[in-house]
Amino acid sequence: MTICLIGFMGSGKTTIGKELKEMLGKKWIDLDEYIEIQEGKKISDIFEQKGESYFRELEHIYLKQLINEGVEIISTGGGIITTPKNSEMLQKTCSIYLEYPFDVLYQRIEGDNNRPLATSYEALKTRFLNRLDLYEKAAQVKINCRDKSINEIAQEIITYLKK
Ligand code: S3P
After folding, report:
1. N or C: which end of the chain has fewer CB within 10 A?
2. Residue 112 pLDDT class (50, 70, 90 cuts)
């Protein structure tokens, strides 16, 4: 079953995905990066030119495609759980929610021009709070990542997978 990493912007979905790829020797794809390659555009340009709902549709098409192709590990984008059909698809995978307190995430994402939704502290915090239930709903398991190293988080995921 495909392992899908979910969580807010800055929660290390890409970094942990890469670490798991190395540790498990499995095929890993970063969905945002895959969308950029397939569409020949940066995520920020897709948002600017076509809008968020168009981007959410692309997320759906490519997530479905990668799961059907049997890709073993997928790092998703932070907003994937906002689309009900994506959440439903994630619930059928081994979906892992990387959980952090908001302030840690904010420090990592503030001022990042490549993230079109990384705006002010208040706006981001509202977005974060509105999404908490959605991550919980889409996830099979939640990993509390606070104060843990990349390696420790990956080990915890591997221990969960062996159960
Ligand atoms: C988004 C998160 C981004 C990217 C896009 C939208 C979001 O991915 O998919 O900018 O809505 O939270 P990361 O979580 O990898 O930053």
Report:
1. C
2. confident
